[in-house]
């Protein structure tokens, strides 16, 4: 049916379907339909086609008998689907023409879609890119996530402060791209107790849950690139098993009976908004178990529906854990095997430990998940027993390897001893997985060296690297049509599925005509962003200025405040040094702070106050503009990234596991200013030293400086420009009549000890920006560098990441349809 759509698109039939949905699904008429109603009806008509292909793919005998990957993630930051799916389905142009016949503009319709923001940042976006690349390359896959009622909060600014509002992404009409699969619903238990039963003379443990909820799956189609392959992204929604207990209802306890209903609905009510930070809340653990249990059951259902024996699970299914968030899936699978399927421990463990693989995303100690043993004990009593047994057997191995070494046992134990005993989820994952990977070469090396050195000794082949990637379909072809057309004119249109082919562009890096065309596209993209900023924020931007972009979650380790200090230093020099000259710059920020992260919110406040002052200061604002774009999300990134000249990737060395924003901007022809951190290291390897601005301390320097007793005041007192910039921040320049109103940031950098070494990297950062300023003046030289960035970052396609997983970890075969 899709083939019909692609090869001989029937305009009349499609428009009839849209109109049918307009009336039968959305109860409106052609005459009365709003743009929103047209968008909904169009998307429904398209979703009908992808649902058909999804069911066909699901029932394909060859796929049922091939190995699949199950990608378990609490987050999928998918962004808008309609436009991207049109592109993947190969009908973007024809649908544009079709809706034009109705007097509608396709891009207006696409603007009606609200982003499904079912993730915080990089980790969730990675999961979305991976699903796209799995479908594009037809490696059998199912994505398993949660159907949050509210995604990541919407951000606005009130008097320069971040304000959060709930994000009801489904809208009141429901999301047109999802389809409920009630026949695949699952029941999930919580709480209760464990008993011993004797079955056939054998003692068996049995969990009797005290509360049971229903998991309702919603499928979102993941559309293969110009193929009929459509895989499900299966999102579980938690519902009460029955509307309420009839018994209590009859007893007159109506409100009490409703209680269970409210509890169940709570579990998938809202996405936890913390990026790289773990808060040990009961409801979060309930989300994790709900997600794992429903997904594991669905995987076993699929496996057994074709008659495959459980013992052969690892031949047909592999389960990738996106961070430790779904770690509880490991004891859950053990519990099902042992308690429900009568396997021995040894048999169950043999299967289990060849099924799971785990991706580590961070070394930050505050982000490594631990759960109160007492909390797991109460919520999941049988799982706690199984975790003890896994640990008991594992520690025996440790004792054999290092006899008499109590420290080793303490360090490696899944249970962290102390007044409150804690379960270390990362240790559980390493012990229970056949492969563990970091997400960039440097990060994976640090995982081996610093995070899990003993595990690496014990299991020398388990730890590996798979460098992250981004899907070139969304992050170049879709978001930057101007550049895409220019590229295809030169090298043909196969690059979206073979991104290394971009390397051919290097032959025109010095070509005058190509340089001009390339920079003309950049300029159009800057104008598109400037128009958005003018319309939505009423700020005028000069598109001849350098667009200097930092867009990512707000976190101290990402050092938006280092960027801020650079801006302050420019402002200071413009006002106080008559001979200071600079190319005009527009600084663009976009970032959400976790609602409970005080300093992050203060940094947003400070940047907004600085922007307010600078943008209305006629002494400087032909040179300097600062824009903090509210509500950073995928659809906003799609407008900002193609417009970037400079990409800020300035985390403290050793703290950013990979980054993917760095890849998106380099691919779109921005030059990176960055530290030797995460994937910056590999971007530099690809584009060459002349085409990137590397500055600052490296990991070893950071360790050495910290060990020797870092004192930020040494830098403050020794560097007059740094001192002037910090003092400017702490005065009343940006908060007239209220000096020291921005002191939270100032104090964290001085009295607070500057934990992320902002001051230590300041001088080197300023110097790198000086080079950018100098080299941007050489128009041809800059164009060459920009072209070479686009040409040389083909490695960072998520298609390559997926092939790495496939070849080194999952061992799947592609099943083309
Ligand atoms: C790519 C992306 C991120 C990750 O950005 P980093 O710079 O790698 O932290 C976060 N949020 C959104 C919306 C993205 O598209």
UniProtKB/TrEMBL annotation:
Its cofactor is pyridoxal 5'-phosphate. Its EC number is 2.4.1.1. GO terms for biological process: glycogen catabolic process. Gene3D superfamilies: Glycogen Phosphorylase B. This is Alpha-1,4 glucan phosphorylase. InterPro entries: Glycg_phsphrylas, Glyco_trans_35, Pyridoxal_P_attach_site. It comes from Vibrio ruber (strain DSM 16370 / JCM 11486 / BCRC 17186 / CECT 7878 / LMG 23124 / VR1). GO terms for cellular component: cytoplasm. The keyword NAD does not apply. Allosteric enzyme that catalyzes the rate-limiting step in glycogen catabolism, the phosphorolytic cleavage of glycogen to produce glucose-1-phosphate, and plays a central role in maintaining cellular and organismal glucose homeostasis. It catalyses: [(1->4)-alpha-D-glucosyl](n) + phosphate = [(1->4)-alpha-D-glucosyl](n-1) + alpha-D-glucose 1-phosphate. Keywords: Carbohydrate metabolism, Glycosyltransferase, Pyridoxal phosphate, Transferase. The modification N6-(pyridoxal phosphate)lysine is found at residue 664. One of its GO terms (molecular function) is pyridoxal phosphate binding. It comes from the Bacteria. Belongs to the glycogen phosphorylase family. Pfam families: Phosphorylase (PF00343).
């Amino acid at each position: 049916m899709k083939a019909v759509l692609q090869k001989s698109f029937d305009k009349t039939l499609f428009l009839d379907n849209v109109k049918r949905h307009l009336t039968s699904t959305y109860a409106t008429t052609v005459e009365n339909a709003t743009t929103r109603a047209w968008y909904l009806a169009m998307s429904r008509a398209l979703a009908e086609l992808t649902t058909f292909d999804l069911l066909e793919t699901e029932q394909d005998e060859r796929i049922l008998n091939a190995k699949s990957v199950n990608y378990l993630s609490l987050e999928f930051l998918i962004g808008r689907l309609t436009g991207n799916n049109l592109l993947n389905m190969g009908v973007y142009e024809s649908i544009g023409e079709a809706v034009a016949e109705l007097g509608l503009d396709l891009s207006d319709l696409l603007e009606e879609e609200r982003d499904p923001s079912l993730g915080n940042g990089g980790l969730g976006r990675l999961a979305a890119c991976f699903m796209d690349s799995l479908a594009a390359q037809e490696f059998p896959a199912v994505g398993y996530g949660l159907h949050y009622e509210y995604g990541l909060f919407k951000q606005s600014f009130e008097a320069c402060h971040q304000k959060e509002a709930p994000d009801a992404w489904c809208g009141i009409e429901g999301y047109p791209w999802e389809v409920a699969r009630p026949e695949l619903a699952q029941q999930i238990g919580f709480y209760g107790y464990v008993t011993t039963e004797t079955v056939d003379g054998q003692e068996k443990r049995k969990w009797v849950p005290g509360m049971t909820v229903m998991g309702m799956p919603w499928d979102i189609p993941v559309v293969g690139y110009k193929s009929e392959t459509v895989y499900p992204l299966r999102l579980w929604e938690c519902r009460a098993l029955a509307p309420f207990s009839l018994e209590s209802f009859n007893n007159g306890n109506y409100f009490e009976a409703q209680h269970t209903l409210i509890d169940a609905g709570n579990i998938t009510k809202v996405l936890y908004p913390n990026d790289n930070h773990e808060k040990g809340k009961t409801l979060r653990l309930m989300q994790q178990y709900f997600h794992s249990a429903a997904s594991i059951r669905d995987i076993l259902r699929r496996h057994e529906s074709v008659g495959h024996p459980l013992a052969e699970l690892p031949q047909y299914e592999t389960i990738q854990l996106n961070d430790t968030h779904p770690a509880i899936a490991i004891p859950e699978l053990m519990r099902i095997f042992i308690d429900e399927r009568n396997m021995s421990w040894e048999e169950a463990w043999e299967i289990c430990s060849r099924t799971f693989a785990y991706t580590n995303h961070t070394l930050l100690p505050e982000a490594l998940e631990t759960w109160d043993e007492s909390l797991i004990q109460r919520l999941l009593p049988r799982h706690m027993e199984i975790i003890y047994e896994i640990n008991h057997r594992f520690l025996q191995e440790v004792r054999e390897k290092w006899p008499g070494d109590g420290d080793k046992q303490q360090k490696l134990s899944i249970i962290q001893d102390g007044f409150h005993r804690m379960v270390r989820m990362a240790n559980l994952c390493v012990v229970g997985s056949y492969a563990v990977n970091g997400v960039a070469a440097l990060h994976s090396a640090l995982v081996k060296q610093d995070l899990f050195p003993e595990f690496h000794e014990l299991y020398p082949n388990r730890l590996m690297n798979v460098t992250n990637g981004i899907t070139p379909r969304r992050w170049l072809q879709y978001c930057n049509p101007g550049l895409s057309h220019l590229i295809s004119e030169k090298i043909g249109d196969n690059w979206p599925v073979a991104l290394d082919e971009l390397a051919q562009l290097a032959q025109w890096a010095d070509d005058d005509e190509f340089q001009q065309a390339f920079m003309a596209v950049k300029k159009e993209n800057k104008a598109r962003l400037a128009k958005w900023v003018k319309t939505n924020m009423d700020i005028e931007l000069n598109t001849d200025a350098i667009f200097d972009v930092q867009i990512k979650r707000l976190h101290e380790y990402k050092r938006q405040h280092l960027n801020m200090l650079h801006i302050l230093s420019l402002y200071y020099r413009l006002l106080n040094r008559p001979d200071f000259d600079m190319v005009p710059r527009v600084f663009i920020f976009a970032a959400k702070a976790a609602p409970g992260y005080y300093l992050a919110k203060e940094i947003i406040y400070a940047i907004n106050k600085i922007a307010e002052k600078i943008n209305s200061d006629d002494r400087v604002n032909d040179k300097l503009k600062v824009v903090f774009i509210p509500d950073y999300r995928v659809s906003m990134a799609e407008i900002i990234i193609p417009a970037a000249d400079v990409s800020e990737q300035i985390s403290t060395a050793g703290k950013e596991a990979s980054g993917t924003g760095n890849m998106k901007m380099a691919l779109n022809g921005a030059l990176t200013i960055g530290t030797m951190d995460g994937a910056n290291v590999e971007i530099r390897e690809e584009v060459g030293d002349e085409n990137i601005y590397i500055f600052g301390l490296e990991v070893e320097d950071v360790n050495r400086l910290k060990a020797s007793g870092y004192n930020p005041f040494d830098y403050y007192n020794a560097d007059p420009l740094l001192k002037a910039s910090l003092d400017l921040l702490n005065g009343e320049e940006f908060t007239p009549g209220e000096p020291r109103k921005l002191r939270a940031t100032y104090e964290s950098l001085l009295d607070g000890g500057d934990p992320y070494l902002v001051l230590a990297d300041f001088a080197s950062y300023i110097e790198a920006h000086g080079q950018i300023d100098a080299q941007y003046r050489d128009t041809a030289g800059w164009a060459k560098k920009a072209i070479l960035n686009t040409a040389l970052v083909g490695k960072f396609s998520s298609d390559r990441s997926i092939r790495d997983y496939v070849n080194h970890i999952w061992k799947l075969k592609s099943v083309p349809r």
